[in-house]
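FAQ: What does the model actually see?

It sees only this:
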Amino acid sequence: MESKPSELSTFSTKTHTDTSSKFLEQTKSHRTFLLPFISFLHQQIQISPFEAYISGSGILTNSLQMEEDGAVTLYSGSAITDTKKNPFSIKVGIAQMLRGGAIAEVTIVDQAKIAESAGACCIVVSDPKGPGISRMPDPSLIKEIKQAVSIPVMAKFRVGHFVEAQILEAIGVNYIDENEILALADEDNFVNKHNFRAPFVCGCRDLGEALRRVREGAAMIRTQGDLLGTGDIVETVRNVRKVMGDIRILSNMDEDEVFTFSKKIAAPYDIVAQTKQMGRLPVVHFASGGIVTPADAALMMQLGCDGVFVGSDVFNCSDPYKNVRAIVQAVRNYNDPHILAAASSGLEEAMGGLNVNENRVERFVNAETY
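And it is asked to produce this:
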């Protein structure tokens, strides 16, 4: 006598099938972003390709679950152009893959290969510095670098220049950086990042600016310091401390005070309220500018950042691999002074010049100063 499947087992099978179909449908346009991360896990952390695939898929599954639970998705349906094509929580989950890593800025293929071999979690391609207007990098250079490395590739474009962003997404970059260091294309408007599949990175100098960029669709925030490439970290420290300090103030506020605080920093109330609830920025938070030594990188991590950007100046030495590797080790072991001491030993002078001038030196004239 043939046994019939129970209603419970039939229901479980159907539910599993529906869930799998939904996952495949929602992640179809985002699976390409997982491939560099899976390769990175396999090569740098030395786990099997299968385990790397499971890890990458797990992050994507968790981000989808957070979207359904409302834990990460910050926007109503009216704010996103197409919720099925561009679920914001998936972009946030993809950006989470870079936490605890160092992102190296490169201008040529050889630098990209060095950064990958040194353990960088991602590389950002920028236009070689020169006279004139700074724009997005040459697409042919980006394609060449993508073929040469297996880690994720990020590329910069000018603020407000949505056509450059469209080009970068079309050639398959993994992350897009709307970078204020380049020449501005639009002085008043940033790109609506919800119209794109790729996760966006945006810079900030304070909490209000960071949360406004998140409202526009940024999946990662980069607190920016030194813009001139002088190796001076003081401005980066100032801006990171300001962001973290405002978050601490916000976390200790009464609910009634959040409305006034959101007006003060000119940020959307719902994202300010979520930042208060989480006790941190609702997206990945990196630091950039003036980070040229392992100690600089560890300082940013201990101040509360999730990772660091390293400028292309780190390659201007006789042994760039050693410099980049030391910074990567410092980010991974930022709380261990013994490892930091070893990583900092034997490095060439990272950047010449002083970062203290007479105006910043406090003069202790008399005992009352103390």
